[in-house]
Write a structure and sequence with these properties.
116 residues; mainly beta; Thrombin, subunit H; two-stranded antiparallel sheet
């Protein structure tokens, strides 16, 4: 059973942009949510072999977030959630059901943004 334990703010993105091509957001509304992951993730990546035929590897650092939002909150891709001083742009959302098969909450995956 999902129980939100954090207060955040949802900035809904409008379908239009400013004259300078920047996104427009409506004033934020307060929502409750839960944090699964909020911060950096290090992913190992293979790199191309060089002329010495050595096999190298690299590490890529990604700033990611995974949040859980109640089912009654209307949210879409491109919206921004402000939580614990971070801005998370929604990149994807997946519905999650409870054990009875009813919609319980949404699992949000997103990328950390610098500013609105």
């Amino acid at each position: 059973m999902f129980r939100p334990n954090i207060i955040g703010r949802l900035h809904r993105k409008l379908d239009r942009r400013t004259a300078f091509g920047q996104d427009i957001y409506v004033p934020a509304v307060q929502i409750t949510l839960a944090i699964v992951n909020l911060g950096t993730t290090v992913i190992e990546s293979s790199v191309r072999a060089d002329s010495a035929a050595s096999r190298g590897a690299a590490e890529i650092t990604k700033l990611q977030a995974k949040l859980l939002v109640p089912a009654h909150v209307t949210i879409k891709k491109g919206d921004v959630i402000e939580v614990q001083g971070h801005l998370v742009e929604v990149a994807g959302l997946a519905p999650r059901n409870n054990v009875l098969g009813q919609l319980d909450h949404y699992e949000i995956t997103g990328n950390l943004k610098a500013a609105l």
